[in-house]
């Protein structure tokens, strides 16, 4: 084992102060045997300029983390009809599919809000004296002791037993643990802007969270609470030199409107509305077989699954990851197991989940290829009907109701029976976290 020290305390560095990093801080703080710090490259914990969905599964975890109470109802938006999302034909406005949320408790209904609102709600539950901003990780080095040395751009360094890579889609921790892994441009560009709600009131956009679909692009309209309104779109832009378009670069109105020429007047008015819109070339990467490495690195959030915002639930996935990590470290501690065992169980729980999500993305890709391979080409309406049926379908709604707490309980039960059947001891092959404490206690008595 590479993770012990003489104090019985595990030193953990969390890299990144996004939803994954802040969630990790909350969960690790519940473990008295963990000494944690968060390192964030930005000069402040903040999220600017975008909206985010909070799905029922995410609300449940925000409750577990104590952060759900920090949302004020005026700062979130829920449609009055309790439908999560409406999918419309962008040319005719016809409603193709609308997902009701029967059976979902009112306080867990899907909501939209600004990412800053989510960040602040999480941050309120974090011991901020352990959050170090303006600390950009630039290098990870393995020490002979087995510990990991972290070097930061500002000259600071730290040596830890466990690194939690919560540093987003361009993760430096992932580069260290899986140097072969690459992300690349998906061929799609997002355009996003948040405007004052009253500024677009005259357009009479339906009071709903709405996708306006076309064969190659969609527009997304919804309120975010707090008097703000989100306009987001996604368009196929295969010709883009994505490396030259930095994240959040200003876009000319024509860059955006050219994708919506065949859409109904309301959609055209919305896309032509703001000249403040920014563009985001979307990057993604293949699935990692494992999200842990070297018994001392675990990837969480976008660092572990560079999906580029697919499913609109990345913050929720991040919280599921860190909930699992916290539970696994606690489980290992209680069962006299080491960090390696804890990380092994995290991977056992989370990697198959991501495999399922990537499989769904492959299905989406197949549908897309089918639409594009038709000769003569499908009409706007026929293509959109297939997209609504195959991609935005009820089949995938389990993702938003995913109960990680139950999944975790089942995983622990499975481990118990596996060890009973094998007649094995949980202690086998790994030094225990409790043993470290016992050893430290004995040492302090000498
Ligand atoms: C267009 C788009 C739409 C989306 N819509 C939704 C949605 O509706 N709902 C939803 O749940 N999710 C959505 N997502 C996904 C969601 O934004 C991410 O999944 C979520 O933010 C992941 O959180 P994270 O903490 O893993 O990563 P991030 O939020 O990216 O946070 C990573 C943090 O690490 C810091 N960092 C990076 N490198 C370093 C370093 N070297 N040293 C120190 N710090 C570092 C960054 O500054 C950042 O603060 C969307 C994503 C995109 C791109």
UniProtKB/TrEMBL annotation:
All residue ranges annotated as the FAD-binding domain in the record: 11-329
Record key words, sorted: FAD, Flavoprotein, Oxidoreductase
Highest taxon of the lineage: Eukaryota
Entry protein name: FAD-binding domain-containing protein
SUPFAM superfamilies: FAD/NAD(P)-binding domain
The keyword Oxidoreductase is assigned to this record: yes
InterPro entries: FAD-bd (IPR002938), FAD/NAD-bd_sf (IPR036188), FAD_monoxygenase (IPR051104)
Pfam families on file: FAD_binding_3
Organism taxonomic ancestry: Eukaryota, Fungi, Dikarya, Ascomycota, Pezizomycotina
